[in-house]
Design goal:
alpha/beta; 2 domains; two-stranded parallel sheet; 11 helices; 14% strand; globular
Length: 269
Amino acid sequence: MFALLGGFKYSMGLNYNGFGFCYNKFVNTDTQHTAGHLAGKYAEVIRQGLDLTKEEFDAASESGNIRNEIYISENSGDAIRKILSENGISYDDNIISIQPSAGWKAKEWSGEKYSQLISQLPSGYKIVLIGSEHDAENNKSIIENSNVPEKCVTLSLPMKLSAALISVSDIFIGSDSVGLQIAGAAGVPSVALFGPTNPGFSNPPGEIHKIVYYKLFCSSPDNEQYCTRDAGKTCPDFHCMKSIQVSDVIKQVNSLTNSFTNKKYQIAE
């Protein structure tokens, strides 16, 4: 509707669920029911929308690169440094940011397991739980039920400051969520917990992004974005997320800490 009513001279997009009429030009790609990463499918909309051949598009872009990018302003960087300092965390500290919440309940891991995870994360890291005001109470409970509340804080931040925080983290942990996409765009190593959604569609590309995923009889086929239980919205038990053990996540965290040098995302000048 934004594209339709925004007064744009030209617009292009997907004919998603028949909404192609909102654009001057639309592409008939069914993103949910065809195999492949979503970022690559959206890039294809740009190519076709601009009437470029594959050769022309590849020449104007990094061929095969489906990593998203994000701009973190200097103001946001300064603001998040100040917030961290007020909570006893230096920009130079090793930071693990965790987003326990996701777009809907079926994608979320239990608070109890997050508490156990925090207790078992490698020493030497400060842990920051992020989310909206709606998530604050749950995040506080997760910290209080861990064995190391003294090295944890929970912050309820607007999106641009959450992005700035993730960008200065050494590792991000969370479900298929906006936080995961920010980590991918900022080049921050991540451990993603997937259940009712297909990691092949949305996990950030690259070896610094690890996946924990148990494929069950009801999980997404390779060419489907969501599981057979309407992305978990009609699932009675969320067994795919319950199958993920704390040890599975710790294994991937250790893999990242052993393999990659910590590099802070460069805040824009």
